[in-house]
Amino acid sequence: MTVDVRRVVDAVWRMESARLIAALTRVTGDVGLAEELAQDALVAALERWPESGVPDKPGAWLMATAKHRAIDTFRRSERLTRKTAELGRELEQHEAQEPDWVAAVERALDEVVEDDLLRLVFIACHPVLSREARVALTLRLVGGLSTDEIARAFLVAEPTVAQRIVRAKRTLGAARVPFEVPVGADFTARLGSVLEVLYLVFNEGYSATAGEHWTRPALCQEAMRLGRILAELTPGESEVHGLVALMEIQASRLPARVGPSGEPVLLQDQDRSRWDRVLVGRGLTALDRAERTGASLGPYALQAAIAACHARAGSVETTDWPRIAALYEALAALTPSPVVELNRAVAVSRAYGPAAGLDLVDALADVPALRGYHLLPSVRGDLLVQLGRLGEARAEFERAAGMTRNDRERALLLDRAAACDVLTDRRLGA
């Protein structure tokens, strides 16, 4: 197979697999079987396209191939009668009438149901699954990523990811999760699970929790792609647009967050001319859509509004820090969290001085949820530097370095600890 054809197959699969699996799940009622049929179509493409060439409508080719695989599977299946009944057709034992149910299957697969993809998203992110399983299944079924890609993205062994996906599909089958979009309060609860998965995927790409890379842009791109799809499927949901806005604006900083050698570059040191203004514009538009829904801003939209303050400012000094502090206060009232309070402390320190921020940070020192959270001593160290308490600051940076699992971040924190010694020596020399 030529490299070009392989790339085309990969690209088509990434774009079409979710719709393909969604349509097959609607017909079969089994997400595991649907993925198997879709994978069969992919294998057929890998075998045939290098010889026959890429078809003019590759997505339609995959669907047609999957359709034939589905019919073959139904023929062989002991559940043929039940499957046919689900399609509203009665199967007669006489072979001459077989085309009736075949035609029913074909019509069901040819039918365009706009909610299919949304239903697949809600299934992949079903709360009956663990958080890790939801992430893996969403990236696999909706994102079209391979097991190996998911494993490498999250620095997890490939067999572990494979087991999560298999167990997730079994769990969905055992729970008999219906292929439908929930309604009412159930929709709101389930939508929260979907947004949480996209947020987790994006954050892992924006600030990798472990490994030798500070960021993993490919994960950010995937989360944004899925978020944009969800926004088009649920145009009236403020929080969906809020999350898209947050991801777009945050992702605009990615080119400036990493230095020439892959080292982290903090916000105050970033070259803002390297921020992607196209992504900023898209994010601000999404934030405007969230606000125009008429609903009060939720947690994601509030975070997007905070990100917008940074995006609109030309520098750290000209940033509207009092507004950011107020937005964090509103966020804390809506979703109380020690991490939100830590971020609010940073904003307060910028708006009203490091001493005011340090008071808030010190109030979090004994919060159980922040034990082992490396950003607590990191933020405290930064505030202590601003207050001239360099010895204490060095100890905080070293403590933070011992907590993080990211190699790049550890090196940055140790450099900041060493810088405290340099500043101390200069003072003594003076």
TrEMBL record:
Domain called RNA polymerase sigma-70 region: residue spans: 18-79
SUPFAM superfamilies noted in UniProt: Sigma2 domain of RNA polymerase sigma factors (SSF88946), Sigma3 and sigma4 domains of RNA polymerase sigma factors (SSF88659)
Keywords: Sigma factor, Transcription, Transcription regulation
Domain annotation DUF6596: ranges: 190-290
RNA polymerase sigma factor 70 region 4 type domain: residues covered: 122-172
Domain of life: Bacteria
Pfam families assigned to the protein according to its UniProt record, in alphabetical order: DUF6596, Sigma70_r2, Sigma70_r4_2
Statement: the UniProt record of this protein carries the keyword Transcription regulation: yes
Gene3D superfamilies in UniProt: 1.10.1740.10, Winged helix-like DNA-binding domain superfamily/Winged helix DNA-binding domain
InterPro entries: DUF6596, RNA_pol_sigma-70_dom, RNA_pol_sigma70_r2, RNA_pol_sigma70_r4_t2, RNA_pol_sigma_r2, RNA_pol_sigma_r3/r4-like, WH-like_DNA-bd_sf
Entry keyword annotation includes Thylakoid: no
Family assignment from sequence similarity: Belongs to the sigma-70 factor family. ECF subfamily.
Name of this protein: RNA polymerase sigma factor
Species of origin: Blastococcus jejuensis
